[in-house]
Amino acid sequence: METGGGAAFLDYDGDGNLDIYVVDVGGPNVLFRNNGDGTFSDVTEQAGVADAGHISRGVACADYDNDGDEDLYVLNEGPNVLFRNNGDGTFSDVTEQAGVADASRSQSAAFGDYDADGFLDLYVGNYIDMSTLSEDRLNFACQPNRLYHNNGDGTFTDVGAELGVADSGCALAVTFTDYDGDGDLDLLVGNDFGPWGYPPNVLFRNDGPGSDGRWIFTDVSQAAGIDGRLYSMGIAVGDYDNDGDLDYYVTSIGRNVLYRNNGDGTFTDVARETGTRAPRAGDVPRISWGAEFFDYDNDGDMDLYVASGPVTGDEKQANLLFFNRGDGTFMDIAAEVGVDDSGSGRGTIIGDYDGDGDVDLYLVNYGQRAVLYRNEYYRPEGHRASTMNNWLEVKLRGTTSNRDGIGARLRLVAGGRSQIREVGTGSPHASRSSAIVHFGLGPAEVVDRLEIRWPSGRVQSMRDVPVNRRITVIEGP
Length: 477
Description:
By secondary structure, the chain is mostly beta strands.
């Protein structure tokens, strides 16, 4: 299967502007520096992140060494590469000394601190073992995933098999996420080829350390009702119905799934009744890849963008933007607002690259040009607002927790409504969106309360926060 083609929003040089790193299966990869004036410059060579010699499939990024800048982990056919950010606009390849040179066909990866020791661990989803592929390409073995525990000294140890989370499916989407709201990060793995009899999706609940100190993960997929046999491609994480728990949208071939969190450890697929199952693409089933929940119009409801495209060939499929009506249903307005881009969509990422308070989109197409969509704030017919909606963006800086605050949960109350966000989670197919948290506030003119539950377990609250700005919150004592 021809997969791959991802990107990441990150601020590699610490100037406050979101830069873009793009992996290209046709190679080489590219780092675009945001010039702060609406333009970007290719700085790949001087930064040292072209990753020449490898076919790259995806990327993850985070400050794994807690030194204040974001690092890059590039997923390849062949050894993956960990680029440590030197803090001077350049990167160093530290893969070998870090111990993360997985030579499998990796497709997706996620950073998260599963044991809350203040250092980001790394989960890597691996795909088909090409050496086992049958002549008819219908039979093959899947390669085990990796859970690299961050040792806190610049090195990692693979504990995936030991802790029972290596899985045995062909993973295309992986994410750390706190599905049950108990304060620790669980693991959700989206596997391809479920309808062919290969393993279904897997949800590993984090049960903390056992009596021997070894961490315990429990497979609760079936009990939770999230063990769908899909051609899983991407996972979007967000509370679409604003009921205080996280829901999950999984892309696939033919039908996508929206798992509504019931708040009791179980999920219900509500894609059909919400209108997000995804329509056919003409006469053929739609093939969906990257997906992201985000509030594109700042009205306080999470909308949903879905990238579509054929596996191979020149056929085109339009992308989807599901507008959240606020009543539990969605409508596709992608063509209306100009983000349908019929092509071969793969990874899609979100972030406010121009700092104007609304969320922009970057779409990677397989074998075709990528597209950057600047959000011009448009509301569909019948849903127009008389004034522009307000917003708040929050950047976290951990002290006891990991520096990026990945895994933190934010709860905001404004205008009589409550919203939650989880930092740095989701798996929009081989990609990673900005870790800066964005809230749309509708007409609310002040944030009554902002509560942050850090990965360390500390809870920090702020009241009467002004709107229409980006704030940085440092983890308190």
